[in-house]
Amino acid sequence: GGLRCLAGSAVAGANPAEPPEAGRIAGGPDRSRLDPHATSEVVRLLWDAPQALWVLDPQGRVVAANRALLQALQLPQSQVLGRPVLDFVPPEEREALATLRQGVSSGAEGVETAWPPEQRLCGAEGQERWFRVMPRRVSADDGTPLEMAILIDLTPERQARAQIDRSLDEMAQWFDLSPVGMLVVDETGLVLRSNAAFEALVGRAPVMLGEAAPDLLQLLAWEGGRPHPQLQIDGPAIEVLATLRTPDGRAPRLRARLRAFRSSAGSMRVMAVVEDRSLEDERDLAHLEIGALMDTAGVGLATYEASRGWLPSRAPAGKGAGGGLMAGL
Length: 329
Description:
The protein has a 5-stranded antiparallel beta sheet. The chain has a 5-stranded antiparallel beta sheet with strand order 7-6-12-11-10. It has a two-stranded antiparallel ribbon with strand order 8-9. The chain has helices at 2-7, 36-47, 67-73, 91-106, 155-177, 196-202, 214-219, 278-297, and strands at 52-56, 62-65, 119-122, 128-139, 145-153, 181-186, 191-194, 222-223, 226-227, 238-243, 253-262, 268-276, 304-305, 309-310. It contains 8 helices and 14 strands.
């Protein structure tokens, strides 16, 4: 009886902060047949409910709405009650929703099929919010069939999803534009993603690691058709150094750092970050050769650094620190 009373009792009021007068339908006569005190209590209870709620008549007009719905739409009662519910739907979606609701208005179908899983509603100044509409059939005190629905506000959830999508898009762009070679494979060896920097280092990325050359498999820690045993989901990264023969005849010295992680579907993924160590290795070798040459020649070396001045000299083998020749003096 309480639901029937609410469905036939909400009226447009001047003050949306107060519950509607019990026993009235928007624009209609008094239809309450219940005890006025009980009617008032039920209306007040649903008026203060935290979830948005409305009641529609057979023509799809809003005949009752609680404060949570008015606040979500940022509209007063006078601009909600008595209006077709399609007025609150974006224009481009009205025809599809009207078609979906035809069976409901005729009574041929249940109200559960009257709404899509997520529905946009327009409020003040065209502001849009997303809701999940959860309807059920009720009836007015005179037996008129009505549709009451709780509306779950999905707007914060959709905003969070949109933020995640933007972050993923930014990460994808960073992946593609990174000057460092990057590769992602699944646990079967299928190459899910690679960037231009990776292909510049190793040549064209294979579709499956099973098709790759042995030196690339060594670099990517792929053994026996599966990731190296040290690669565990959310475990520490591992580092691999390998010399790779490229199609153009080069043999760069590459370093790969690899880490396994879990995808959103729960399967294993491995990401590899690959760098060319050839220049660093050549520099280190040059330093060793210079040191060996100086030791063999019996000379010392002094280095000048702008921020620190002359650094201590390197003494030749068998002599004191002061016995060397200061290069550049």
